[in-house]
Amino acid sequence: MEKVKVKIFKIKLIIFTIICAMAAGIVVNAKIKNSNVIEINDKNEIKNKQLQECEIKNQADLEKRWKIGYDQFFEGEYAKAIATENQVLKEDSKFYKAYAVKGIALAYNGDFEGGMQQIDNSLKLKPDYGYARFNKALAYELYGYYTEAIKWYEKDLELEEYEWTYYGIASIYGRKGDINNTVKYLKLAIAINPNIKNEAKNEKDFENVKQYNQFKLLIDK
User: Fold this and answer.
1) Helices in 75-159 by DSSP H: which ranges?
2) What is the per-residue burial (b if ≥16 Cβ within 10 Å, else e) of 185-204?
3) Distance CA 100, CA 113 (A)
4) What's the count of helices (H) and strands (E) in the chain, helices before strands?
5) Over the stretch 82-124, which tens digit does the pLDDT of each residue have?
6) Residues 98, 114, 75, CA angle at the centre, nearest 5°?
7) What are 144-156's pLDDT values in tens digits?
8) What would the DSSP string read from start to end of 97-109?
9) Cβ-contact 123, 133 below 8 angstroms
10) Closest residue by Cα to residue 165 from 144, 149, 142, 148
């Protein structure tokens, strides 16, 4: 009987040992799996961080090149501005700022419809982009569509108080000989940027209102 008990005890011990070994194996495997998951997550996190850094660097580079095209436009180098912005858009077709500059450069370069299409591309991507709204107004003004120009200048003013937007509206009223509205909007432009007085003194758009004392007092004081 005693021998039977000893035998049963040994069997139980062996079973217990096997169970412990299996449990230990499961724990080890779980730890290895967990370690692998952590390693994969770490690698993914590093990869995502690298991609984000790359994207930020790329956007910064595009901003620099966009600004070159922007400056080229203001220097009157319209063809160069268009070419520069085309390069930006080739790399990022959703870079809305480039469409706005390309559009106004095209308009000044004689392509009104093409310019408007590009400006509209900018506004489709970012409807609240003030500079695109301003450029749309400016293009309309450039080609003599004054009612539409004022409409889009006012749309720009919904987003920002920009002196050249007020100046643009004043210029249109100046061409029409409307002294009251010319002075009204020119005052608003000067309130933001007093240097606009110097621009207004030599502005051909104000030829029809320069004889009025209201205009003279505004730009001479």
Assistant:
1) 78-91, 96-108, 112-125, 130-142, 146-157
2) bbebbbeeeeebeebbeebe
3) 13
4) 10, 0
5) 999 999 999 999 999 999 999 999 999 999 999 999 999 999 9
6) 55
7) 999 999 999 999 9
8) HHHHHHHHHHHHT
9) yes
10) 149
